[in-house]
Amino acid sequence: MNSLSGRFLILTTVFVMLAEVLIFVPSIARFREDFLLNRLERAQIASLALLADDMLADELEAELLANAGVYNVVLRRDEVRQLMLSSPIPDQVAKTYDLRGAGPWVLIRDAMIRFFTPENQVIRVIGQPVRDAGLLIEVTMDSAPLRMAMIDYGLRILGLSFVISIITAFFLFLAVRVVLVRPIKSVVGYMQRYARAPEDARGIISPQSKVTELREAEEALQMLQTDLTQALKQRERLAQLGGAVAKVSHDLRNILTSAQLFTDRIEASDDPLVRRMAPKLVNSITRAVSLCESTLAFGRAEEPAPTLTMVRLRDIAADVASSEALAVDGGCIEIANDVPEDLVVRADPEQMFRVIMNLVRNARQALMISGQPGKITISACEDQDAWVIEVRDTGPGLPPRAQENLFTPFQGGVRKGGSGLGLAISQELVRGHGGELVLTCTGPEGTVFEIRLPRGEMGF
């Protein structure tokens, strides 16, 4: 019974039985009332026989009382209370029930008390005579026959309820199988077939269900499968394109490296025009070589796992600052190392050098493009959870397009001719440390990148 339809069958049976039990209590109360009214009616008929003939034989009177199921009958007519029929009462009257003004809650209460009282008692029942044949009629009787009749009626009600619940559950089971389970199994089948060959568009589900919720699920699955299939195809095309680009970049880098060797001779030329154009040619070739090397580096399957050691971050920042200071070449850009002397972090020194170098280089190039003086600051601090490294510049800020594609390869470049690989590679390296690289702020007042390296065991 682990299937949806099997569990639905059990739940339906249980709830139908519960509903029948709730119906059972007022039904028993109603049955008790009808039983007592029936005894009153029989007693009234017996008393009318006595009125028709004032003198009845004792045997006939006893037979009338036995048929009525009572010990005696009292009929009030014309404000006169008359003992119509009587016989010896075996015990004192234990309880009196007046059916003339009893409400539903009183009837239910009295029925439940009688149902759960096993011993026989003599009870008095008062009711209204049928067809206005008097003011009231009163009888005394045993409670045992009433209780036995209530038990018999209750058993029949429960048995009928069980049969009804089984039949109802069976038809609901069939309905659920047809309306819900079969369409769900069809969706599952589509999912299994698609999982075996997600690139095959023929495995995409075609919504057919007429049930609103199931059709929405099928449409959502169709959209998901369509997008995933297209993404897989695009991934395959990109993988093929990446392989081709890597090969082209490798060969192009070799060609450009050879061309770079001849630029030294060109710079020594006596022709003023050649000497003036040679630096531009050298810069163009250098950028092309750098792009090819970045493309090849990003095209590797993955960066190697970091070798985590405790290193002085200030030393790494100092190496970056000295390397980039050469590119500034006495310009008006200052690179400051504000990392505390005693700050030690857990990181791979080489990879962390590459990350900080990329951030500082991007900041330096942005300042050089703007033509304005500026400052690049490398700072760091630590808290209970992480080491925080900041690279801050006073540059013009990142344009909106660069912010949207900040860490996207080949799209996040800021300067003309840039590949946009620096930040993508940096983010991958920081994630390898278990940390994160985020853009904290950017604008006319400058740009701040933040590196967070976790200190806990989960960081490595």
From TrEMBL:
Q: Which residues form the Histidine kinase domain?
A: 247-457
KW Nucleotide-binding (keyword) present: yes
Tell me yes or no: is Phosphoprotein among this UniProt entry's keywords. yes
Q: Which residues cross the membrane?
A: 6-29, 157-180
One GO term in the molecular function aspect is: ATP binding
Q: SUPFAM superfamilies under this entry? A: ATPase domain of HSP90 chaperone/DNA topoisomerase II/histidine kinase (SSF55874), Homodimeric domain of signal transducing histidine kinase (SSF47384)
Which EC numbers does the record give?
A: 2.7.13.3
Q: Which domain of life is it from?
A: Bacteria
Q: Which UniProt keywords apply?
A: ATP-binding, Coiled coil, Kinase, Membrane, Nucleotide-binding, Phosphoprotein, Transferase, Transmembrane, Transmembrane helix, Two-component regulatory system
Pfam family of this protein, just one? HisKA
Q: Which residues form a coiled coil?
A: 214-241
PROSITE patterns noted in UniProt: HIS_KIN
Listed under catalytic activity are: ATP + protein L-histidine = ADP + protein N-phospho-L-histidine
Sorted alphabetically, which PANTHER family does this protein's record hold? PEROXIDE STRESS-ACTIVATED HISTIDINE KINASE MAK3, SENSOR HISTIDINE KINASE
- Protein known as: histidine kinase
Q: Which gene is annotated as encoding this protein in its UniProt record? A: zraS
